[in-house]
């Protein structure tokens, strides 16, 4: 499993939690950084990559296509998705996203996160409430 190289990172935390769940099920998981391209090139068995474009070095895509030609099954758990990213991940056997996006590739699967996505409806109203709480009587 290839994950974020950062200790304090939501993607890193998610990946470590998923690894622990796999281990509890008896799966042998080897943890690597997505920036370790030598480990990516030498990988054996199925590969799970926790992907966000800012984390992946440029050689990641070229190596991904080379691994696909060798028949390596690669799954990208895509934590940020756009149609362009979907095209860049064309070497993946499966692209997993956490919610539906327009233009998902046919090889995608939607697996929701274990917690809801926070999207406030009216930020202005929420901010007004918070500022009102902070007001001090003079």
Give structural notes.
The protein has 138 residues and is an alpha/beta fold. 36% of the residues lie in helices and 15% in strands. The chain has five helices and six strands, in the order E-H-E-H-E-H-E-H-E-E-H. It has helices at 10-24, 37-42, 59-69, 83-88, 123-134, and strands spanning 2-3, 32-33, 47-51, 74-78, 94-97, 108-110. The strands form two sheets. Strands 3-4-5-6 form a four-stranded parallel β-sheet. It has a two-stranded parallel ribbon with strand order 1-2. Helix 3 links the parallel strand 3 (47-51) and strand 4. The radius of gyration is 19 Å and the shape is elongated. The N and C termini lie far apart (58 Å). The mean pLDDT is 85.
What labels describe this entry?
single chain; 138 residues; alpha/beta; four-stranded parallel β-sheet; two-stranded parallel sheet; 5 helices; 6 strands; 15% strand
Number of helices: 5
Give the H and E element order: EHEHEHEHEEH
- As a whole number of angstroms, the C-alpha radius of gyration is 19 Å
Strand content: 15-25%
Residues in helix, %: 25-40%
Strands side by side in the biggest sheet: 3-4-5-6
Low-confidence stretches: none
Biggest pleated-sheet summary: 4 strands, parallel
Sum up the overall morphology in one term: elongated
For the termini, the CA-CA separation is: 58 Å
Set out the fold topology.
Blueprint: E1 2-3, H1 10-24, E2 32-33, H2 37-42, E3 47-51, H3 59-69, E4 74-78, H4 83-88, E5 94-97, E6 108-110, H5 123-134
Parallel strand pairs: 1-2, 3-4, 4-5, 5-6
